[in-house]
């Protein structure tokens, strides 16, 4: 679900008049290289963010996160015409879960303790958004040459 949704979101921003074969091969090579790097680094920075959250090392917790993630992506892919970033969905689910876990097990403590982690996650996905826009702009620019 994640891969099909991300590929669909990527191709929404590519030129509508058709891509040349060399452009398509470059795009596929970049995507495959990115996935290969992600697998080689065993999730890399994404996995560090996930493991920094409370209780995500436990299989039941991880399965529930994955289940809700898949359901949200399925809804947006099948039943909605609104394009949705899988990163925003995933980080949003983790942030909401983290807030719920913190509030459940730390009653009476200030909620501001959890905000530095949430702000750091938000800044990371904003950087990802900026890089995504830069990549799409570069692809459109080089395809028009």
How would you describe this protein?
75% of the residues lie in helices and 0% in strands. With 145 residues, the chain is mainly α. The protein has a domain at 43-143. Helix 4 packs across helix 5 and helix 5 packs antiparallel against helix 6.
Helix/strand/pairing class, anyone?
A: mainly alpha
> Regions with pLDDT < 50 over 5+ consecutive residues?
none
Structure summary, number of beta strands = 0
Q: Could you describe the largest sheet, including whether it forms a barrel? A: none
Helix content class: over 70%
Cα-to-Cα separation, first versus last residue: 34 Å
Rg, alpha carbons: 18 Å
Mean pLDDT: 78
How much of the residues is beta strand, in percent?
Answer: under 5%
What sort of overall outline do the alpha carbons produce when their principal axes are compared?
elongated
User: Which series of helices and strands comes N to C?
Assistant: HHHHHH
Helix count from the secondary structure assignment: 6
Key phrases:
0% strand, mainly alpha, 145 residues
Short structural summary:
With 145 residues, this protein is mostly helical.
Question: Helix and strand layout, with pairings?
Answer:
Blueprint (H helix, E strand, L loop, with lengths): L1 H11 L8 H20 L3 H8 L7 H21 L6 H20 L9 H29 L2
Helix pairs in contact: 4-5, 5-6
């Amino acid at each position: 679900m994640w891969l099909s949704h991300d590929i669909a979101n990527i191709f929404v921003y590519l030129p509508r008049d058709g891509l040349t074969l060399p452009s398509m091969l470059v795009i596929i090579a970049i995507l495959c290289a990115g996935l290969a790097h992600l697998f080689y680094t065993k999730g890399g920075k994404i996995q560090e963010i996930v493991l920094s959250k409370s209780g995500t090392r436990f299989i039941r917790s991880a399965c529930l996160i994955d289940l809700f993630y898949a359901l949200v992506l399925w809804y947006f892919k099948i039943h909605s015409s609104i394009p949705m970033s899988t990163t925003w969905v995933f980080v949003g689910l983790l942030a909401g879960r983290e807030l719920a876990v913190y509030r459940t097990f730390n009653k009476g403590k200030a909620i501001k303790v959890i905000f530095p982690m949430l702000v750091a996650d938000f800044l990371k996905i904003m950087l990802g958004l900026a890089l995504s826009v830069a990549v799409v702009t570069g692809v459109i620019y080089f395809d028009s040459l």
